[in-house]
Design brief:
elongated; Serine Threonine Protein Phosphatase 5, Tetratricopeptide repeat; disordered N terminus; 15 helices; 278 residues; mainly alpha; 0% strand
Length: 278
Amino acid sequence: MAQASSEKTPTRTPENPMITAARESGQRGEWLEARRLLEQALEASPQDPQLLWRVALTYLQCGDRDKARQYIDQVELTGDPGLEAFKVKLTLAAEHGAREEIAALLRQGAQSFGADRGFRALQIATLASMLDDAPAALALAREFAAEQEAEAGGQELLLWVLSSMGAWADAITQAHKVLALHDSEAARYQLVVALLAQDQVKEAVEAGKPLLPLASARANIAWLWGLVHERSHNEAAARRCFAEGAELCRKQGESDVAFVAKLNHQQKEDKDHGKQHS
C-alpha cells in the first residue's frame, strides 16, 4: 500500500482585515477612510512594502502627490518595490508630465519586470496616456523597439503605438517584423486592421486566415472578419459575423470591439465623403 504524501497544500495567509476594509473603502471612493485604515495598519508593520505602496496610492487619490512620493521612496528602501509600487511611481511621473522621467522609469521597469504581462499592460497604458503628445509616445516606443531589436515585446509595443496613431503603412511594416519573430495573434490582428485601412483587402483576407477559427469565440475577431467580409462584398457573411460579434461582445465586453467598430464607421464616412465629391 502506497504511503500517503506527507506534503501539505500550502495555506493562503489571510489578508490583514485593515487592508480588506481599506480596499473596500477605496472601491466606494472613500479614500480618506482608506488612508486612515492603512496608516493604522502601518503602525504595526512600518516596513511592509505592500502597505507602503497602498498608503502611497491613497495619498495620490487624495491629491497629495508629495506625500505619495515619500511613501513610494520608502517602498524602494525596503528593496522590494514590486510592480504595484512601480505603477504608483509611474503615475506620479505621468501626472507631472515628466516625459524624461517616464522614459527612464519604463527602461528601469523593463529590466525588473520585462517578463511580467502586467508590466507590458502598464507600458501600453503609459504610452496611451502620452498619445496626446504623439511624437513623444512614438519616440519612446521606437527607443524600446531599438533596444529590443530581437524581442517581440518591444516590437509589438511600437506596432500598438503606430496603429493607435493611424500610421497604417508603418504599422503594416512593423506587424510583418513582429510576425517574423513569432506568430503573435495581437500582431496579426493589427496587421489585418491596418491592411483594411489601406484598402488592401486581398492581403487582409490572407493575413487574417489564421484568426478565422477564433471568430466564433472572440468578439473582436468576429467583428474584424465582419469587416473583411464587408470589404470583400460578401454582405451575408459580414452580417453574420457582426451579429456574432455583437452577441459575444454582450457576453464578454471585449474592449477591442469598440475600436474595430470605430474603424468601420470611419471608413464608411470616408467612402460617403468621397462619393459626395465625385
